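To: structure subgroup
Subject: Chain for Friday's discussion

All,

I'm putting the inputs and outputs inline so they're searchable in the archive.
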Amino acid sequence: MSFRQPFLTWTGTSGNFSTAANWNLGTVVPAWRITSISTTTAGGTLSGAGTVEGFNFVNSGKWTLAPGASLSSATTVNIGLGNGGANSAGALTIGGSSTLTVGGFINVGNQAGDISSLTVQRRRRLA
């Protein structure tokens, strides 16, 4: 017998990754065995820490990792997905003191015409 892991969807706007109320099931915080995570809102700032199998930043949302945020994906991070429509657009900004670790690929706009972006800000050193 096999079980398919749940597909969780971020339903909050800005908030902590580890807060169950920000997810569609409302009582579950993603663990690394979660199949995938998709964003359905128009963007926001993610804080906290967590590891999952994959992330999809879609729906024309503009997402930012908050200072100190540390998120990990075992396989892929998709920023925008193919096939047109709202899912083909997405944006992610990784701030200078936040971390995104990916064990596979980061896909930014999978097909021609997709409007997606990834911005990585470097950490500034004080003199």
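Points worth raising on Friday:
Residues 8-112 form one domain.
Residues 17 and 48 are 5 Å apart (CA to CA).

D.
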